[in-house]
Amino acid sequence: MFKKVKKFLDEVKVEMSKVSWPTHQELVNSTIIVVVVSLLFTVFIFTADLIIAQVVKIFY
What we know:
This protein is elongated. The chain has a domain at 23-60. It has helices at 2-18, 24-59. By secondary structure, the chain is mainly α. It contains 2 helices and no strands.
């Protein structure tokens, strides 16, 4: 059991050394993009919901 866990952790260590980690600036830029796109998507969904609610209200 412990041999399997050790082997797994050794393999994880090897794979993690292959990872190309983003720089601080890349991380900040990516975070800003995600927040902005999320806000735009939220506004779009909110607006669509209001319009659909008004249309439904008219016909029912």
